[in-house]
């Protein structure tokens, strides 16, 4: 998975608490200042703009974010990795590091030496500690799913929640064991966690994958809000209340913390750049991108304001439990890993909700180069299949862009069984969700999503004439933009098409004709690039296994498939407009 842009923490940049400083105490009387439910949703301002913070705290119904941190005065200030700093391994330990790397695909050897309750720098923007939140925030169940997680990172994840969450808001921590095989995650984990009454462990009887494991956790949860986290994270100071506040303000808001980077090599805690949001590129690949500068200016945004987010990374978010089920939770047909973040993101936005990144809530995550666990089936195939399910249910006509970016093979129904989608499609209808076009225009307007790759006239360079479709057959004519018969699309399915008819080789590729377009037929597909390729402007058929190119007869009365010759102008075809390469 992709890491957000990050940098090492310089001591000057953040307040690394090396001096002893008592952890902030909760004043229960403050929390219960008013029993009256707060009706109006007031947009809370950062305390930064009111000079007298004490009045803000006394305002009925709200209090300053509780910057609780039971780890501020660690027992072992000199321990390895303490305060989130880079830990060094002596060179004679290299072999050991390498030996244990594959247990988690990060520096497990080092992680095991770092205290499970280490302190980390409070990386929040300064105003965050002054922000006000409501006294009567809903409680949450924190759900960690894991399969063969490394002991020390799993424990560090749990301790970070216990140590940095207001106890009255933390209903429980649910650990869902997705059929781990490591022995220490069985009885020893039960025993370790038995000292924390809030921690419950659910054991799945067979490997379900993270999507169905999360559903099992959600089904058991008693809190009003579900908070999902990966099992190798460290929640930072004040992480929880800003998330719950957003859900409180609007139950259809789905807030995500800023995901910071815990180095897989030295376990240091790294800051990420401001204004990052989750996006996707084709074919539904998750990534990060900074908000456009003009957008920040136009909306007068500061670094602590919530950021509207087209898609979430997937692992870390809070959601109102009832709302999660109203949305139909996750598609339970998604297997093991991948794609569920796209599914829930499209679902949330298109069916009336919002996804936000909350800069005042920060959680570190170990980004790994590889999944440290096995996939029951082929990894690539599993993820592709998940994504195809999402594309089929949510992308409408834009699903062609998904398939057109390297996934044509998924259209072959015999080779890929993406399973039954009836329930998911019915769900979308029942919820009266908006179109993917609406999503692109309103949530992710800077996304480039042309519905065809090229369009207009199809000009043959050698003949200097254009392809035309007359009375069901192909011919050449003097180019004329005003004639609809000369207009073709080159689509993401790699079809050369006019309405429902596709240019197709016939017989053994000797003749040409038109067939009804059919996405599942590879013989209707043509490779075509306008530039940047040896065979630019050629139309290369997938009809036969070796390359053959569409060629105009020199008299302009025939079409052939011939071996491709880069210099042959009769094989060069140019569309009027190219929307994408
Ligand atoms: O079969 C499985 N069963 C599980 O319980 C596979 C995984 N899991 C657990 C696993 O132990 C871990 O706690 O599920 C969690 C997520 O798995 P990771 O850590 O291998 O996933 P990731 O961090 O590589 O990938 C991101 O994308 C996934 C797509 O399905 C999930 O949404 C992850 O939650 C998600 N992680 C994040 O969003 C953290 C930030 C990463 C980024 C960008
Ligand atoms: Mn992860």
From TrEMBL:
Any GO BP: protein O-linked glycosylation
Coiled coil region boundaries: none
Membrane topology per record: Single-pass type II membrane protein
Keyword Ion transport applies: no
Keywords per UniProt: Disulfide bond, Glycosyltransferase, Golgi apparatus, Lectin, Manganese, Membrane, Signal-anchor, Transferase, Transmembrane, Transmembrane helix
One GO location term (cellular component): Golgi membrane
Subcellular location per the Swiss-Prot or TrEMBL entry: Golgi apparatus membrane
Lineage: Eukaryota, Metazoa, Chordata, Craniata, Vertebrata
Main location: Golgi
Domain of life of the organism encoding this protein: Eukaryota
Pathway the protein contributes to: Protein modification; protein glycosylation
Protein name (record): Polypeptide N-acetylgalactosaminyltransferase
Ricin B lectin domain boundaries: 455-576
EC identifiers of the protein: 2.4.1.-
A GO molecular-function annotation: carbohydrate binding
Class of enzymatic activity (EC top level): transferase
Cofactor names: Mn(2+)
Family statement drawn from the similarity comment of this UniProt entry: Belongs to the glycosyltransferase 2 family. GalNAc-T subfamily.
């Amino acid at each position: 998975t992709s890491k957000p842009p990050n940098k090492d923490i310089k001591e000057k940049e953040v307040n690394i608490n090396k001096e002893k400083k008592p952890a902030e105490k909760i004043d229960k009387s403050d929390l219960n200042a008013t029993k009256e439910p707060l009706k109006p949703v007031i947009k809370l301002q950062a305390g930064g703009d009111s000079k007298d913070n004490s009045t803000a705290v006394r305002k009925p119904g709200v209090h300053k974010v509780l910057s609780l941190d039971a780890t501020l005065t660690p027992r072992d200030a000199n321990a390895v990795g303490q305060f989130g700093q880079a830990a060094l391994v002596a060179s004679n330990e290299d072999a050991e590091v390498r030996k244990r790397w594959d247990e988690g695909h990060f520096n497990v050897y080092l992680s095991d030496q770092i205290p499970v309750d280490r302190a980390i720098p409070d990386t929040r923007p300064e105003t965050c500690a002054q922000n006000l939140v409501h006294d009567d925030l809903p409680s949450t169940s924190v759900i960690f799913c894991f399969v063969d997680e490394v002991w020390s990172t799993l424990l560090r994840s749990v301790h970070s929640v216990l140590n940095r969450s207001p106890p009255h808001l933390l209903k429980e921590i649910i650990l869902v064991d997705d059929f781990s095989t490591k022995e220490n995650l069985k009885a020893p984990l039960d025993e370790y966690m038995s000292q924390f009454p809030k921690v419950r462990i659910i054991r799945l009887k067979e490997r379900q994958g993270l999507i169905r494991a999360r559903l099992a956790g959600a089904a058991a949860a008693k809190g009003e809000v579900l908070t999902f986290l990966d099992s190798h994270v460290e929640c930072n100071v004040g992480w929880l209340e800003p998330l719950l506040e957003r859900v409180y303000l609007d139950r259809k808001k789905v807030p995500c913390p800023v995901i910071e980077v815990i180095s897989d090599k030295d376990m240091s805690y790294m800051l990420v750049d401001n204004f990052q949001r989750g996006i996707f590129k084709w074919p539904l690949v998750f990534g990060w991108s900074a908000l456009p500068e003009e957008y920040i200016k136009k909306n007068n945004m500061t670094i602590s304001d919530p950021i509207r987010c087209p898609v979430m990374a997937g692992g870390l978010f809070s959601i109102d439990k009832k709302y999660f089920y109203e949305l139909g939770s996750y598609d339970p047909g998604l297997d093991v890993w991948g794609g569920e973040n796209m599914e829930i993101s499209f679902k949330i936005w298109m069916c009336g909700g919002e996804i936000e990144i909350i800069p005042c809530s920060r959680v570190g995550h170990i980004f790994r180069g590889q999944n440290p666990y096995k996939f029951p089936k082929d990894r690539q195939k599993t993820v592709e299949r998940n994504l195809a399910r999402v594309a089929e249910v949510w992308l409408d006509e834009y699903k062609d862009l998904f398939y057109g970016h390297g996934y044509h093979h998924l259209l072959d129904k015999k080779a890929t069984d993406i399973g039954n989608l009836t329930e998911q499609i019915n769900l979308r209808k029942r919820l009266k969700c908006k179109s993917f076009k609406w999503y692109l225009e309103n949530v992710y307007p800077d996304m480039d999503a042309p519905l065809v790759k090229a369009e207009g006239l199809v000009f043959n360079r050698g003949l200097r004439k254009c392809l035309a479709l007359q009375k069901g057959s192909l011919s050449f004519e003097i180019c004329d933009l005003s004639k609809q018969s000369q207009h073709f699309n080159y689509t993401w399915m790699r079809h050369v098409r006019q309405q429902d008819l596709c240019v197709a080789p016939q017989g053994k590729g000797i003749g040409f004709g038109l067939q009804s377009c059919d996405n599942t037929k590879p013989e209707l597909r043509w490779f075509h690039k306008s530039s940047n390729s040896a065979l630019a402007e050629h139309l290369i058929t997938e009809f036969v296994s070796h390359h053959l190119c569409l060629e105009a007869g020199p008299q302009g009365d025939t079409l052939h498939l011939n071996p491709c010759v880069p210099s042959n102008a009769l094989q060069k075809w140019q569309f009027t407009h190219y929307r994408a390469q």
